[in-house]
Amino acid sequence: MTELIRNPRVMKKAQDHIRSKIGHKEQIEECDLLELDYLRDVVKEIFRLHPAAPVLLPHLSMEDVKIGEYNIPAKTRFFVNVWAIGRNPKSWDNPEEFCPERFMNSLIDFKGQDLELLPFGVGRRSCPAITFGAATVELALANLLYHFNWELPPGVRPEEFDLTEVFGITMHRKEHLVVVAKPYN
Ligand code: HEM
Question: Exposed (0-12), middle (13-18) or buried (19+): which is 3, by Cβ within 10 Å?
Answer without folding.
Answer: middle
